[in-house]
Design brief:
CATH class: Alpha Beta
CATH superfamily: Ribokinase
Helix content: 25-40%
Number of domains: 1
Order of helices and strands: EEHEHEHEHEEEHEHEHHEHHEEEHHH
CATH topology: UDP-N-acetylmuramoyl-L-alanine:D-glutamate ligase
Structural class: alpha/beta
Number of strands: 14
Distance between the termini: 9 Å
Number of helices: 13
Strand content: 15-25%
């Protein structure tokens, strides 16, 4: 068995945009009618978000504390990992909900029950179409002000990995915070992990992403479209070859085709799980969570990919970014078998 390399207080220190997810089932025709670009994340103002909520009449699901990195930190905690999350919410009702939900899910954070700044907590309207695609319209609110000063250095130094979500490159202050997190991680011998988060980040903020990974990170997560857009490659093989300049190891998710991994020496293929997808919101975030949990618990790169593949496959069979009780039980049982196999 590959033993975990440290006895750090936290497996992963994450930083990202803190957003309360509001998930609504819609049709592709509704998205077109209201001028919403399907399948990507678009930044909008509060008035536009309220307008969309007023006109979209599909089934609305329970809200949840979210944002890409938050989903990953919570997924990690669900699978036995220890996570810390740096983020920014306001002293409003939505911020109170976010803080309580984060604590309920077992994630330590920089937030406190009191003393949060005045303002408006960010919200993400997640619109899910019948083809299971997720389209996000995001009002960042106070999270757009997250900066280097919000990094909790003691927690970062006490972690095995720093995990940075790609959405942070879309605003100057959060981009500075992302770069500073990686710099501090390298200074204190903490491993670095980055997620590209969304094709829109690679398409519209590719230069910032390139700067973020100009010094190769230890681990990079993206999907096949993000890899191709970021590298400008015509196919996945070429994209993976180009990605080796930016990451020592990486994982590329390919939806129903599984995933492709580079463990630093060789490429590995991860088989997909055949499921009926109804909602892909959070699937990539959970893939990263399960992958990191597996590595920090001593599993090798291939087995980390197996656990991550099953986790994301189970998640897309339900609505929302959190595994329900039954899916979590299935994933935990598989995780247990992998760990016992290593011990055996």
């Amino acid at each position: 068995m590959n033993k975990p390399e440290t006895n750090s207080q936290y497996h992963v220190f994450g930083i990202g945009n803190a957003l309360v997810d509001i998930e609504v089932e819609v049709t592709a025709e509704e998205l077109e009618r209201y001028g919403v670009e399907k399948g990507v994340m678009t930044l909008i103002d509060a008035e536009r978000q309220e307008e969309l909520l007023k006109h979209l009449h599909g089934t609305q699901h329970s809200r949840a504390c979210g944002g890409s990195a938050a989903n990953t930190m919570i997924g990690l905690a669900q699978l036995g990992g220890k996570s810390y999350y740096t983020c920014k919410v306001a002293s409003d009702e939505t911020g109170d909900f976010y803080y309580a939900d984060l604590r309920r899910n077992g994630v330590d954070s920089c937030l406190a029950a009191s003393g949060r700044p005045a303002g408006v907590t960010g919200k993400c309207l997640v619109m899910v179409t019948p083809d299971a695609d997720r389209t996000m319209n995001t009002f960042l609110g106070i999270t757009s002000d997250i900066g280097p000063e919000d990094i909790v250095l003691d927690a970062l130094k006490a972690s095995e990995y720093v995990y940075v979500e790609g959405y942070l490159v879309s605003a100057p202050t959060s981009f500075a915070a992302a770069k500073e997190c990686l710099r501090l991680a390298r200074e204190h011998d903490v491993k670095t992990a980055v997620s590209f988060s969304d094709p829109a980040m690679a398409r519209y903020f590719g230069q910032n992403l390139a700067e973020l990974v100009a010094e190769p990170v230890d681990l990079l997560f993206c999907n096949d479209e993000e890899a191709r857009v970021f590298t400008g490659a015509a196919d996945l093989d070429s994209a993976c070859e180009a990605m080796r300049r930016h990451a020592r190891r990486f994982a590329v998710t390919c939806g129903p085709k599984g995933a492709r991994l580079f463990d630093g020496e060789r490429m590995l293929e991860v088989a997909p799980h055949v499921v009926k997808a109804i909602d892909t919101n959070g699937a990539g975030d959970l893939f990263a969570a399960a992958f990191l949990a597996a590595l920090c618990q001593g599993l090798d790169f291939g087995k980390a990919g197996q656990l991550a593949s099953l986790s994301s496959a189970r998640l897309v069979t339900q609505f929302g970014p959190r595994m329900n009780r039954d899916n979590l039980a299935t994933v935990r049982e598989f995780q247990k078998e992998l760990l016992q196999g290593e011990l055996g």
